[in-house]
## 1
Amino acid sequence: MNTTKTLLSGIQPTGRMHLGNYFGAVQSWVTYQNDYNTFLFIADLHALTTKYMSPEGLRETKQSLLQDILACGVDPKKACVFFQSDVSMHAELHLLFSMMTPLPWLERVPTYKDKITAMQDHDLNTYGFLGYPLLQAADIALYQADVVPVGRDQLPHMELTREVIRRFNHLVQKPVFKEPEALLTSHDVLLGTDGRKMSKSYGNTIPMSDTPEQRSATVMSMVTDPNRIRKTDPGTPEVCPVFAYHRIFNTADRVSEIAAACRGAEIGCVACKRDCAAALNAHLAPIDERRLTWSSTDTLKDIAKDGAKRAILVAGESLAKAKKSLHL
Ligand code: SF4
């Protein structure tokens, strides 16, 4: 137990939570909440950087995301869970950071140009999109976070956050904000149903709130080893996304049996997928059950409100220090 250290993490409400989000982040939150002073937020302001033209449904998405997070086992009595826009300090500190951050620091963030190219159907030629790493820096700095769980691809953002905080502290000549460390996550990567990274933009996700029947139907439609046309063709499980799911959701013995049966052409892909869907649904059954206990909209609103109150106490203190140091 290391509750003297503070951990901060967030998730964007760009759609329903899917299995990739669960394995990539939320599953670990359930452990972190026991080990750290944990702040978890639903990053609705970040969502606006790409959804500003069509924000309809954002409120409902936030609420369903909160329900999923709680269903996954995050305990609002342990972790402080809140909506980012309910804590106005995030926007205010973002503004202060934007005053003193050299523009090239933002322009050189590797994901900036990549994302603009990848999301041609969105007009991302906005300050909000260019400045979103600064909003991230504000999110982290406000809670004086010691650690932030990140994947390897997000390390440049963390480095920028550290640079922004260093520059702020240097300019005001006071250690107002703590420099956070990256906590590198090393989860099983859960692929999408087509074998690519699971992502809403690829349309290859399995939403957490799907019913067991819907999940089974999705698994039955997954791509398999492309060279296995007939049941009599020996397969190569290592190239098959369904087998990757078996590895995560099935027992080690069953995984070995399936691998041997696939290589020996003793099992058909339909039967193999059925087995996979059953293992997946069994794994998610406790989450499905907990989701029902968090179905009251009023309860979810109260949890978010209570989380925001607790967050404001910490964020307000940090922001007050920052403003004082800037003679505001
Ligand atoms: S038998 Fe299973 S592991 Fe082998 S190719 Fe078919 S779905 Fe994939």
## 2
Amino acid sequence: MKLVLLGPPGAGKGTLAAFLNKKLDIPHVSTGDMLREEMKNNTLLGQEVKHYVESGGLVPDQVVIKLIENKFSHDKAIDKGYMLDGFPRTKVQAKDLDILLNGLNKPVDYAVYLDASLPVIVERLTGRRICRHCSAIFHVKNNPPKKEGICNRCGGEIYQRPDDNEETIKTRMSVYLKNTKPVIDYYEAQGKLKKVDADRNSQEVQESLMKIVHSIGEHERGCC
Ligand SMILES: [Zn+2]
């Protein structure tokens, strides 16, 4: 199954990707992780990425496309399918991605859009706390650490990311929706959009995703 994951920060893409990875054994391809990995390994591409990041600019589309091309041409795990996360975020990117993936004979089957509303996202992100040491994620209400300010897993200090405040979240969300609405329309026009109500808890979201996956499987086997 070849999927693109769409959804604003706080919609639960990371959790869902981990679940699908376990259930279906298809790799989660996060362009954000890939960019960080290239920088860490100090590859030529990584040096280029670092240059953009350090000068405060955006990494150009063509650099990310190149990264995806490298990964999708060489990584055998991708033959089973993929969940692409972090790209595309604009319609231009979606079109470029189609050209690339069609060329590699690995076209997108479906775009899964995790549709979460602003109040829910604000509640999730303003309550989010992260361990400085092991990056474990907590939530003040839904998943509080046993001891306040201390990580359950490693005993490290727990902090709140400075950009997890209501104003910044609202700005991020409006930028996301402005850019991503055309991407959603683009996949919808191709009949590839699967929309999931992501205001619900992660278990309910996972259940509706599995229903979609099964219906796709039946459709592909031509039984109904
Ligand atoms: Zn920790």
